[in-house]
Amino acid sequence: MFDALADATRRRILALLVDEGELCVCELTAALDDIQPKISRHLAVLKDAGIVVPRREGTWMFYRLAALPAWAVALLTTLAAGAVPELKADVRRLKAMAGRPARCAA
């Protein structure tokens, strides 16, 4: 868990997932204003650590937080509560994204 949290990009991804619930790779790419291969690489690290789980819907890959112990949820909640200063700008870019994918019920 702590190795996964050591990277600033992964902390930003987790803060967005805490804030938004579930996001597509394209949404994370737009929100973080970064390239898709880099976001996907960080998501793979988070998935391997058991922190996020993927869900495929057509051509879209969505990620959400995995079922985690209470201490881990509390730790991740602090990311969205102010520990990630870039979160406001990331959410602003996410909300401005055109063509966000629609979601079916997970």
Secondary structure: number of strands: 3
Tally of separate domains: 1
Mean pLDDT: 93
Query: In percent, how much strand structure appears in the residues?
Result: 5-15%
Q: Main sheet?
A: 3 strands, antiparallel
Distance between the termini: 25 Å
Instruction: Name the overall outline.
Output: globular
Name of the CATH superfamily: Winged helix-like DNA-binding domain superfamily/Winged helix DNA-binding domain
Strand neighbour order, sheet with most strands: 1-3-2
* Uncertain runs: none
Computed over alpha carbons, the radius of gyration is: 13 Å
Can you walk through the features of this model?
With 106 residues, the chain is of the alpha+beta class. It has one domain (2-92): Arc Repressor Mutant, subunit A (Orthogonal Bundle), CATH 1.10.10. It has six helices and three strands, in the order H-H-E-H-H-E-E-H-H. It has helices spanning 2-5, 8-20, 25-32, 36-48, 70-83, 87-96; strands at 22-24, 52-57, 60-65. It has a three-stranded antiparallel beta sheet with strand order 1-3-2. The longest helix has 14 residues, at 70-83. The protein is globular and about 35 Å long.
In short:
The protein is an alpha+beta fold and 106 residues long. The protein has 6 helices and 3 strands, in the order ααβααββαα.
Summarize the SSE layout with pairings.
Blueprint: H1 2-5, H2 8-20, E1 22-24, H3 25-32, H4 36-48, E2 52-57, E3 60-65, H5 70-83, H6 87-96
Antiparallel strand pairs: 1-3, 2-3
Helix pairs in contact: 2-5, 3-6
